[in-house]
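Anyone able to model this chain together with phenylalanine?
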Amino acid sequence: MEMREQWRSRWGFVLAAAGSAVGLGNLWGFSYKASQGGGAAFILLYLLIVLVVCLPVLVAEMVLGRSTGSSPLLAPVKAGGKLWQPMGWIFVIASCAILSFYAVLMGWTADTFFHSLFFGLPQSIEEAKAFKDSVSNGSSVFLGQLLSLGLTAAVVSAGIRGGIEKIAKWSMPLLFGLVIILAIWSSTLPDAWLGYKEFLLKWDSSKFFAPKTIRLAFGQAFFSLSLGIGIMVAYSSYLNKKNQLPKEALIISGMDTAVAILAGMVTFPIVANFSEVIKPVIEEDKGSFITTFFVALPTGLSSLGITGQIITVLLFSLTFIAALTSAISLLEVPVSSLIDGFGWNRNKAVIFSTLFIFVIGVPSALSGKFLGKMFAYSEVLLLIGGFFISILLGWFVTRNYDQDLAECNSQIGVRRYLKFMLRWVSPIAIGFGLFVSVYDLLKPAAT
Ligand code: PHE
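re: yes, here you go
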């Protein structure tokens, strides 16, 4: 048998996993959902879910990958027996579904980047409308989607060490640097404080218990951590026993949350400062999630002339790089599963998966509404995946969890805590989150 490829270094793995986690979900989804979910109530709930519910599941997902050394398709079967096969398929289906619309969003990001760089920013509502049409309609959408999938495929076909690890190692530090620089710049805007208040300090306790806030917070926590979809299974299957998984899970979720909050500290001051220009643009499109990020921000920044243009170009290049490292991890799920389950070689698996994902992404490329629906429902799939992971490792194959964590020398107290949470807290909490999310998605719209 061929030796399974391994990460070159511990940091290679951590940065690749953080690269998967940090993406559009942080740079755009977090701020958008915070504004929809009542600011501080959403953020608090999100942090609570990450710390209490997601961390033990994140470690469990890593253990599943490392202890079986298998792809997401086969790892559940190897650990728990044939009955767990559907879980592997859920992973593969969810990752193809998410990448299908994620690539479209990446395409818009690329379009916005090129447009801002070469043609400048929209100066008025009319120009903003034209800008939106050129970014999110017509052939440029397909071009953007193709470009994004092509780049993703190129990196994945180069393999773990030669592709994924290499790109994570230079892109993650760059990304951190850029988001910090932009957050500092935003803090110098005259109305920055107003923006922070809207984002971090606006408190409305009724929102804390609103089904919508609960759905958004659960969905965001799983989506942003790339959790419940087999990515951490795939990445951890290339690990050796030296990595202390609990510590690494903490670092990865810490980096992810830091970037989400920093990104909010970039965008909220901008919205607060240019609200006269931005508000009408957002209202024009009934607060659509696409318009807020891809159109309203560049329009607002246009008031600053060349500085605004530079900031926009930086913001969208940062977003694209972050999205690329996430897309790579999504593609690795079907690719490693085809290699493992069907004996295909990497290139064949990459070409087949990429074409398939391109085709199922066409409806999202054609309709923003469809894309929004895909987004919301895919988060439910992640919760289902997370639920089954906590049941499998917390109740059925507990030995994997104990043994694997003991072998990497994590402290006994940490192990006990994680196992307790995985058995008793995560499944119940995720079950609750699932119930509320499905209820909130299926109830007839109030407006
Ligand atoms: N975590 C990524 C983001 O925040 C998206 C993603 C979701 C990637 C699920 C992989 C799996 O953008």
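The chain is about 80% helix and 0% strand.
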